[in-house]
Each structure stands twice: as C-alpha cells, then as structure tokens.
Amino acid sequence: MYGSVSRWRVKEGQQQEFEKLFGEVASQLPEGGRTLLILHADADSQEYWTAGCFDSKEAYTANSNRPEQDDRFRRLRALLESDPEWHDGEIPLTLP
C-alpha cells in the first residue's frame, strides 16, 4: 500500500467550509483508494492533518493526475493560508 500524510493550515473562519469540502472528497474515494482520514488539531484551530491510503503507488499517482482531483485540490487550496505540507510513502504495516 501507498499513501500520504499532509498538514493543512486553513484561513481563519474557513474551518467549517474546509471540513465540508474534505468530507465530499472522502465520500468519493477513487479507484484504488482505501481510506482518507482528517484530524483537526487540538492545539491550533486552523491546523488539520490528513492521511490517505491507496492500494499502490500507481493508484495514488493515477488519482493525483486526474483532472477531477486537481479541481478538488484547487477548491481546497483556496481555503488555505499556504500550500499543504506533503509526506508520501509506502505503508509497510496496517492494523485491523
């Protein structure tokens, strides 16, 4: 499996819209997508962390290259103070 963990800093007052839009993204996982999690940090109301899991690096890359994914990212990006911080890699272990 393959995935990404990312940090997102949302503009003040845009938290509810960000969560709504991210919920739409999470409810429509692409082919090869396993799960998408979002964490709203206790320490900072504008900070979110996400984790996405795919069957393979190829499925992850194919999703990243889809025009629909680019459109969703641009809509999310408009709610952010800056670009997200991405950390991609192999997922060597998952627990039930």
Can you characterise this structure?
With 96 residues, the chain is an alpha+beta fold. The chain has one domain: Alpha-Beta Plaits. It is built from 3 helices and 4 strands; from the N terminus they run βαββααβ. It has a 4-stranded antiparallel beta sheet. β2 and β3 form a beta hairpin. The longest helix has 12 residues. 9% of the residues are buried. The mean pLDDT is 94.
Compact summary:
The chain is of the alpha+beta class and 96 residues long. The protein has a single domain, classed as 2-Layer Sandwich (Alpha-Beta Plaits), CATH 3.30.70.100. It is built from 3 helices and 4 strands.
Number of domains: 1
Radius of gyration based on Cα positions: 13 Å
| Element string (H = helix, E = strand) | EHEEHHE
> Distance between the terminal alpha carbons, to the nearest Å?
14 Å
Quickly give the structural class. Answer: alpha+beta
CATH topology term: Alpha-Beta Plaits
Sheet with most strands? 4 strands, antiparallel
Low-confidence runs: none
